[in-house]
Amino acid sequence: MAQITNSMPTAEMQALDAAHHMHPFTHGADLGKKGARIITRADGVWLTDSEGHRILDGMAGLWCVNVGYGRQELVDAATRQMSELPFYNTFFQTSHLPAIKLAERLAQLAPGDLNHVFFAGSGSEANDTNLRMVRTYWELKGQPSKKAVISRWNAYHGSSVGSGSLGGMKGMHAQGGMPIPDIHHIDQPNWWAEGGDMSPEEFGLARARLLEEKILELGPENVAAFIAEPVQGAGGVIIPPETYWPEISRILKEYGILLIADEVICGFGRTGNWFGSQTMGIEPDIMTIAKGLSSGYLPIGGSIVSSEIAQVIGDAEFNHGYTYSGHPVAAAVALENLRILDEDGIVDAVRDRTGPYLQKKFKGLTEHPLVGEATIVGMMGSIALTPDKDSRAAFEAESGTVGYICRERCFANDLVMRHVGDRMIISPPLVISEAEIDTLIERAWTSLDECH
Ligand code: PLP
């Protein structure tokens, strides 16, 4: 077997990668032709590849490395916990201090009466938990017909069969038997692409009322929950018009339907508060968490649940759990990560200092001839690429082609941005400095110049 070290020539690493490694969400043949870019090290907001290039990570890995790369405190927390107790489960009446402390800290940070945590290994697993939990809750409350869950097209809630069904990605639904029954989707509040002649406010109301129509079509007695991200991330960073969430909240209250806020991206400072629900002024019954919970240093996710739901579920046995629910090393790292976010003032900086600086600079990209809108909250933003800003037209080429080219140009210019169709996205580590923000914007501008 070959010794794999960072000093191996890039071409050899790429050949091994192509020979044996199946990549998620990647066209294998395309990658085989080009070869993957091999990332070898990272610190702060910077990645280093096997050729020694320094790449500005405008996506914080996959929207997750909130405290930046190279935090020794997280390495130390993992090392300590590994030596003390590398694993024990939290099934069958045992517990351990890392899971206990992390659950307590999350209960302190979470809004309202979200006081109980069910741990998982990832966001997908946590959303599977949520699906089973809301249905079980209604069953235990004597309303077993409440099974349907409503979500939104273009939402991403994970890749397992349950969470992928909750998601609204048609390309995913086309493969492998999704969506499972009793999951329904409504359109997302994407004013730029779909608002037509309506003002954003009118459009926000119209899109929220699709939820009411769907509830009435299904019958409120059959609907368990609505799941949504406070700000849709992988769907293109769709920041809803101001009228949207208040109307959604009114509808859910009126018909007695639970709200699951998927905070996997929006949580842990991304929008300038601990949770996106606080930024958007919503009061969920359950929040899905992952990613920024450990800044991606180790896999961990979970559901933060209201006292009412925890009480009803806790009065019975919930036949559900993962070997790694509350994994002690991941929990210790998450706890330390929350301490860093708090004590280094990172959430405050996103709200009051570097966040507003990034927002101003990012919105300046609308001066570029290719950019229609630039929309950003906290440190998650997207630009819509268009051939005609006034009509908000889409490119005639197959949707996503121009976005793809721009993404490739960014990567060639040592900047990671992502594209969703013809929207380009940023979600940098929350520790990015003003000078690094300037570099990010300069590289984005140069890359845009090169793709039209
Ligand atoms: N929910 C949202 C909003 C996400 O963005 C993601 C991942 O990108 C998930 C859930 C799934 O999380 P994981 O990839 O940890 O399973």
TrEMBL record:
<dbReference type="InterPro" id="IPR015424">
    <property type="entry name" value="PyrdxlP-dep_Trfase"/>
</dbReference>
<dbReference type="InterPro" id="IPR005814">
    <property type="entry name" value="Aminotrans_3"/>
</dbReference>
<dbReference type="Pfam" id="PF00202">
    <property type="entry name" value="Aminotran_3"/>
</dbReference>
<keyword id="KW-0663">Pyridoxal phosphate</keyword>
<dbReference type="GO" id="GO:0008483">
    <property type="term" value="F:transaminase activity"/>
</dbReference>
<keyword id="KW-0808">Transferase</keyword>
<comment type="similarity">
    <text>Belongs to the class-III pyridoxal-phosphate-dependent aminotransferase family.</text>
</comment>
<protein>
    <submittedName>
        <fullName>Aspartate aminotransferase family protein</fullName>
    </submittedName>
</protein>
<keyword id="KW-0032">Aminotransferase</keyword>
<dbReference type="InterPro" id="IPR049704">
    <property type="entry name" value="Aminotrans_3_PPA_site"/>
</dbReference>
<dbReference type="InterPro" id="IPR015421">
    <property type="entry name" value="PyrdxlP-dep_Trfase_major"/>
</dbReference>
<dbReference type="InterPro" id="IPR015422">
    <property type="entry name" value="PyrdxlP-dep_Trfase_small"/>
</dbReference>
